[in-house]
## 1
Amino acid sequence: MNSAVCTVIFRYIYTNSPFMVQQVTEGVSVTVETFYQPAQSNPLSSEYLFAYRITIENLGSVPIKLLRRHWHIMDSNGSYREVEGDGVVGQQPVIEPGANYQYVSAANLRSEMGKMYGTYQMENLYNKRLLTVTIPEFHLIAPFKLN
């Protein structure tokens, strides 16, 4: 995490930037940072691309494997969609205790603001128990909407 001032509220960590959130569930920390992609966006055609970087950290004492993802994606026009599938960016990483896994992906919106949240299904590789890990809600906002 960066050197931003943080306040802890209900297991979420909010930074002084609206573009980074973190949550811990089942001993797994999920941090999300978002980035508007102006070069791949076309506001005149209502096409807005946002990249997001996710860092998953295993705070537990046993290895875990990320099996599936389930996303809820909304924009300010009221459009809603769900995305489900195996792994992330084509992988089902094993994350050892104390280690982290990071990936970058993107979402297209039809408006300059939206939000995403979801879950990962993970497996405790010691006892084969399935875990549902929360991906905290994060906002996708084109910088020109902040002024």
## 2
Amino acid sequence: MPRKKNEKSFKEFECTVKDIFLGEVKSKNIFPLLILHLISNETQYGNKLISKIKEMSGNIMTVNPNTIYPLLKRMEELNLVRGKWDKPKRPYKKYYYLTKEGFKKYNDIKEAQKPWMEKLEKAVKILRKEIYS
């Protein structure tokens, strides 16, 4: 039976956790904070950051090179990170580390985003309790 023009199927209203989470993550500086955090712990190269983010988030956050490399380049331009090529080894990798300004920005963003992260955590707990209790 064909649907009427104004009827919407359930499928049209579906969204994934990725849709919700990544939209908020991108709009709340959480992604740059995560990059700075990972680089603050040890030098990292782009593909390693991609795999660490995927692993840490339980595959909820997937990042592609077209997202991470422009961000790393922008962070270099802002003197938040510096990249150093590892040329003796192949394939060549550019390892990133935080600058003094990068550590300051990392701590500033971390403090600024803490209330939002706490609200997000609280909201997830409330939703889980509401739905599954």
